[in-house]
Amino acid sequence: MVAAWRDQLDREEKKLVLTNGCFDLLHVGHVRYLREARALGDALVVALNGDASVRELKGEGRPMNTAEDRAEILCALECVDRVVVFDEKRATRVIDTIRPHLYAKGGDYTPESLNPEERAALDRANTEIRILSLVPGKSTSATLKRMQDDSGGGSKNKGPRLAVLGSGRGSNFEAIADAIDAGTLEAEIALVISDVAHSRILALAQERGIPAIHIEPGSEKGGRLSDAALKEIVDRLEAASVDLIALAGFMRIVRAPLLTAFPGRILNIHPSLLPKYPGLGAWRQALESGDTETGCTVHLVDAGVDTGKTLAQAKVPILPGDTAETLHARIQEQEHRLYPQVIAETWRAGLGQ
Ligand code: GAR
Q1: What is the reported pTM?
Q2: Minimal CA–CA distance to 172: which of 246, 93, 243?
Q3: Which CATH architecture has domain 15-140?
Q4: Quick one: 160-348 is in which CATH superfamily?
Q5: Contacts of 212 (CB under 8 A, 6+ apart)
Q6: 140 within ligand 1 shell (Cβ under 6 A)
Q7: What is the pLDDT of residues 71-119, one digit of tens each?
Q8: C-alpha closest to that of 86 among 121, 61, 131
Q9: From the alpha carbon of 248, which atom of ligand 1 is closest?
Q10: pLDDT in tens, 146-176
Q11: How far away, in angstroms, is 202 Cα from ligand 1 center?
C-alpha cells in the first residue's frame, strides 16, 4: 500500500521520506527530528521497530510501550503521514518495498557507517541519504535514567547525590554520613570539598572512602573565594553530578557562579536561632548577650551571610555556668540530629521550592 503511494508521489514529482526507529518514549528530540525529516520532502513514513526487534536492539525491559501504542502516538503527529511496523532488526525489507526517495537517519551515523544491508537496499532503490543531528541531551535513555533516579528504581540510592563543603572538624559531615549508613537518610555523599588543606573533614571523608578534595580558596579578603576557586568548585560539583550541597562549617561566603549553578540547592547549618547572631562565633555572641536560649538553624543559602530562607530550627537552653565550649557542644548535638533530617525532608519536598 505504501509502495503504491510512493509510486503515486513519484508521478506527482513529490518526494517520500522514510525514517525508522523504536520511538519508545516519545520526547521532544524525536519530534524535532521527525519534523526535520518531514521538511526534507512531501510525505514522511516512519518504519517502526516491532516489539521483538526493540527488545533485541535495546535489551530486556524494552520497549516500554507496545508497537500498537507507539504507532498510535506517532500517527497523531502532524509531521508523520504513515507508520509501518516491521519485525526484523533491520529496515532492509521495508526499504526494498517502499523504495523511498529520501532516507533520514538520526545520530552519529555517516552514510558509510549505516548498516551494510540497509545501505545496500538504499543504493538499490537509488535513495538519497540524509543524516540528521540529534537534539543533545534529549533521548529515551536519558529520560529513562531521570525517571529511575527520581523513583530510585535501578539506582543504589533513592535520595540525592550530596556534596558536603566544610573548613574544619567535620562533625556535621560525620553526622550526615552516619545517618546515611544507618539508613535514616537516603542519600549518597558524592564529594567532600574543603578550602583548608589539612582539615579533619577531608581526613574523615578519605577514611570513609568518599572522594575528598582541597580547593585553594585564593587570597581575597573577608571570607570571599576567588573566581578561580568558585569555578573549580562548580566544575567539580557538576562533574560529580551533585544534586544537593550541604555547607557544614564552611567558613566562606558563597556567591555566583556557585549560587547560580545550584539555585535553591545549597543548604547551610548555623549555630544560632537565625536571624539572631549571623556570622562567626554565634554561640559566643548568644552567651555574651545574656540570652537564656539559643540553638541552630538549617537554611537555604543566598548571597548574604546566613540570610537565606530558614528551613528548620532546634532550640538549646543556655545553662548557668555554660562556657562557649559547653554551649557549642550542646548546639552541635542538635545540629547533628537536625541536619540529616532536614536534608531528607528538603529533598523529598522538592529542594525548598
Ligand atoms: C558548626 O557548629 C556549624 O554550625 C558552624 O560551624 C561548625 C562546624 O562544625 N557553622 C557556622 O558557624 C557557619 N556560619 P563541624 O565542622 O564539626 O561540622
Answers
A1: 0.60
A2: 246
A3: 3-Layer(aba) Sandwich (3.40)
A4: Formyl transferase, N-terminal domain (3.40.50.170)
A5: 191, 192, 193, 194, 201, 202, 205, 206
A6: no
A7: 999 999 999 999 999 998 889 999 999 999 999 987 656 676 678 889 9
A8: 121
A9: 18
A10: 666 666 544 445 799 999 999 999 999 999 9
A11: 15
